[in-house]
Design a protein that fits this description.
Blueprint lengths: L8 E5 L7 E4 L10 E4 L4 E4 L23 E4 L2 E4 L4 H9 L7 E3 L2 H23 L3 H12 L8 H14 L1 H8 L4 H12 L3 E3 L4 E4 L7 E4 L6 H9 L5 H14 L1
Antiparallel strand pairs: 1-6, 1-7, 2-5, 3-4, 8-9, 9-10
Helix pairs in contact: 2-4, 2-5, 3-4, 3-6, 4-5, 6-7
Length: 249
């Protein structure tokens, strides 16, 4: 049987902005029930931390009990390997995993590596985009007027966005609706479609000023219009708008 190796452990508060000092409840009270469910017996056992006891359970403690506070300083508390009672108490505490958790440097490093890899992937993808793709994303994400924005500005904005929001960027790049949304934005920019009050979208050609659809409040206009133009009801209108756009270009 492999002998258990005792090690020093560090615990941290889970909130991003930890207080300078936080005192953890160390005994059961009506105000804060400190109970641990025993899987073997099906009983909730009362917890109490006492530095002169060998057990964290009240029903296994005896004699004079010496209580002492458990304080997180600057969001952390270090527990040496020779204080196994405190380590066991912390990892059996009802707030473990909610208010505080154990620092796992290997796990934390793995998460950081994963985040950095995603960021690198996003930046590589951003650098390999064609100008058409850059313009498409800029129309949809930033609502840029491509005719008034330089190529250098577009590339810069895309790279910054990929670095700051790598997961969102990769999701957008792989979204099949992206191209259709960009096309809709072109229709608006060229005046072939017009937005009216109440979310109404109208055709705006010389021969046709009729209402095409109404975008529900809170919905993305380009996405709703793109979805309509890809539907059976809107496919013919899409063909006409595409021909008019090509003529203008």
């Amino acid at each position: 049987m492999k002998k258990e190796k005792f090690v020093d452990k560090t615990y941290k508060l889970t909130r991003d902005a930890a207080p300078l000092s936080y005192m953890l409840p160390t005994r059961h009270t009506n105000r804060f029930p400190l109970l641990h469910f025993d899987e073997d017996t099906g009983v909730n056992r009362e917890l109490r931390y006492a530095r002169n006891q060998k057990s964290i359970f009240v029903d296994e403690q005896s004699g004079h009990v010496i209580m002492e506070p458990i304080i997180f300083e600057d969001g952390f508390i270090n527990v040496p390997k020779n204080n196994q009672v405190l380590q066991q108490f912390l990892e059996s505490h009802p707030l473990y995993g909610k208010r505080f958790t154990r620092v796992d440097t290997e796990k934390d490093a793995s998460k950081q590596v994963e985040v950095l890899n995603i960021e690198v992937d996003a930046l590589i993808e951003a650098r390999t985009l064609s100008l058409d793709q850059i313009e498409t994303i800029s129309r949809v994400v930033f609502n840029h007027d491509i005719n008034k924005t330089s190529t250098a500005e577009l590339k810069r904005d895309i790279l910054v966005y990929a670095r700051n929001y790598p997961e969102d960027f990769l999701s957008i790049v792989n979204d099949p609706m992206l191209k259709h949304q960009s096309q809709v934005q072109k229709f608006f920019e060229e005046g072939l479609l017009a937005k009216k009050k109440g979310g109404a979208i109208h055709f705006n050609t010389k021969e046709n000023k009729k209402r095409m659809l109404v975008v529900p409040q809170g919905e993305d206009t380009n996405l709703i219009v793109a979805a309509y133009l890809q539907s059976d009801d809107g496919i013919e209108a899409l063909k006409i708008l595409e021909k008019l756009l090509q003529k203008d270009e």
